[in-house]
Design goal:
The chain is mostly helical and 355 residues long. The chain is built from 13 helices and two strands; from the N terminus they run H-H-H-H-H-H-H-H-H-E-E-H-H-H-H. Helix content is 77%, strand content 1%.
Amino acid sequence: MSSFLQNNFLLLATIIGAGIFSLPKALMLSGIIPFFILLLITAYFMFKINIAYKQIILSKKGKHQLPVYISKYLGHNSYYITIFFLFFSTIGALVAYLSLGTTFVQNLSGLSKSTSFILFFTVLSSLLLFGGDKLRSIDVFSTIIKIMLLFITPVIAMFVFFHTKQSIKIPLIGTSPFISYGIILFALTGFSIIPELNSKEKKNTSIISSQIITVIIYSIFAATLSPYINGEWFQMKNLLLKFIFDLAGFFSIFTPYLMISWIVFDLLEKDIKLNKHLSLIITVFLPYFLYLIGLREFVKILSFTGSVFLSSIAILISVAYTKRFKKDRLVHYLIRFVFIVGIIIEIFKFLKQVT
């Protein structure tokens, strides 16, 4: 497989995950105009961040994770700040994936929620603990199926929608225009996988193509599936649509969970310098523990994780990039401004909810 295709698979496998299933709800709440404006702007910003991170990686010899690259240009203290944001953003993603993955397994199997959770967690944990080098092959296979299903699902959804003659009730500007910001940011984020890309591809073609493919899939998915939103989740009476949707959901969670878990493991072992076995135990069981104590509200987890933790990481990458290369400053100042505003809004929203 060429380095271009290999990198595309890695990027699409990591980027397209649980976040896609929160997009139809975000579209309904924010409205068509705010949603698609935020989608395009955020996609461009994340493209610039991914390119910046790749340039930072190429400027330093050896293979490292994000904290090492950031600390080289922003000082030793930034090492621990980056670890903090990266750790909690990835753990937050894993908890969200556990929550959503349980739902899909339950829908596909007909088992109880608790049994579905145990089954989903056991399969993924076993792969992490014993999969080894086979994980990359599983990733390619799962990504191919995931992309196919995510294209098929909207087609069936549109057919069912028009066949049943439903009415479309998506507002141009919704009741919460900016709620989709954190969700979209989470759904578009893929910089954690940038260090794993094949360095033989010197140009940025795979980053550009994967971002374009992602935006197209997200746009179609959000637009065609939003009419099926009922309350906090989807309601589908057509059995074929429901089955394909749940199957697409399972494969959309499956691969990113493994990839992000491996990133957490590398962070703990290589950057925090924990014992290999302890790093693996924390990676596998911390999301499990957080899920059990009640951290299960999928959309809220994604919104907070995207707006606060991922925005903070993007800002650090942006600052390190402009300090090292001294170019694209205007774009990166704009990126930082938007992300800082997003962080402030999300924190105020969170404080309002807990007070």
